[in-house]
Amino acid sequence: MDKEKYFKEKSAEYQKFIIEMTNKNQEYFGDVERRSLELFGMQPLFFNPEEYKDGFYEAVSQKDWQSVNDFLYQEMCYWLVPMSDGGGGYDHCFYFYQAMEAYACNAEHVLEKIYPYKLGLTENGYPFYVAGSNLIIAKYYHDGDMLKKAVEKAEKFSKSRASKFERLVVQFLLDILNGDFESANGNLLNVCKGYGRIEKPMQAIKDICIPAHGLYCIAKSWLAKEEFASIKMPEHKAFLQEYAQWRINTSDIILKPYMIYPQEMDIFNKIYAMPTAETLLTQERLTDKSKLRPVIDNKRMHQIFTEQLKGD
Question: Staple partner for 50: which of 112, 164, 204, 300, CB 3.0–4.6 Å?
Fold first, then answer.
């Protein structure tokens, strides 16, 4: 991709929407850090990896797998920056897609921040996110009681009327837990086949099934070496076999963003260098008469992240 052109466009936006606005009315727009974070999260295409996805495809064509990994890592980080009004009214299950992408790019350590052990299993949110998140949480923390509950809920979900793609993802996780590798291989292939028909609101790459890459790496993490040998890479255009092979065979993968901004926009480099925000929950009612339910405390997380970015 033409990074020089991209940086020129971003510099103009940065000056117009951040520098000029904060200089004009700092009382309303805040300082550079606060304003940058507000636009970073609120604008659909403002410094979003979607804007430079051509770089991903360029890296794929050149078989530059480190750069491919850089892009996935940056996209994951982008969606984990706390937004003052994000979360959709869900609890920590909201981060299921980011959890799969974390496995895909070797950043599983973020699970301790997005799924803190002290928060326990998820319960409030989109059923697909709840079922998938709980299996990952239980296995990551090696908690047998959690796993029993998570499996029970996941099995019910896999037999529900949820979309086929969603049921296949959850069933794959159940398959590798149950040691049914033949079923797992078929389901992982079908996940790739069905990916083109689902909405992908938080994925810049629409034709490569990043969730399948995450699932494949989850299998490597959960299974013994001889068991993982039974898991086949999907032979499908939506799955990058050479990248997947590089990912599982490379022990010194460097986690870094694909897009490094010039000095004048270094605030965005600082944002990506920040530690992943730890999920905080609060309680809210959907209506005045409904019960309290756990939801992500976006405002508090956003406030803490902003303060940390400013060094307060």
Answer: 204
CA Rg value for the chain: 20
Output the pLDDT for position 63: 98
What span, in angstroms and rounded, lies between the C-alpha atoms of 237 and 243?
13
Q: Is 7 helix (H, G, I), strand (E, B) or coil?
A: helix
Residues 6+ apart with CB under 8 A from 287: none
The dihedral through the CA atoms of 173, 176, 179, 183 has a sign that is positive
Separation CA 130–CA 153 (nearest Å)? 9
Separate counts of helices (H) and strands (E) for the chain: 17, 2
Q: Look at residue 312 and tell me whether its pLDDT is greater than 60.
A: no
Which residue, among 194, 180, 177, has the nearest Cα to 234 in the 3D structure? 194
Would you give the DSSP letter of residue 116?
Answer: -
Q: Does residue 130 contact residue 170 with C-beta atoms inside 8 Å?
A: no
Residue in this structure with the two tokens 């897009």, named with its chain if needed: 259
Give per-residue pLDDT as tens, 111-146: 999 999 999 999 999 999 999 999 999 999 999 999
The C-alpha atoms of residue 169 and residue 157 are separated, in whole angstroms, by: 11
Single out the residue of 254, 267, 275, 279 nearest to residue 46, CA to CA. 267
pTM of the model as a whole: 0.95
CA neighbours closer than 13 Å in the CB half-sphere of residue 305: 30
Beta strands in the chain (DSSP E): 281-285, 292-296
Given a contact cutoff of 8 angstroms between Cβ atoms, the answer to whether 169 and 211 are in contact is yes
Share of the chain above pLDDT 70, in %: 97
DSSP code for 253: -
- CA trace torsion 200, 206, 212, 217 (10° rounding): -100
What is the pLDDT, as a whole number, of residue 84?
76
> Is residue 295 within 8 Å of residue 284, measured between CB atoms?
yes
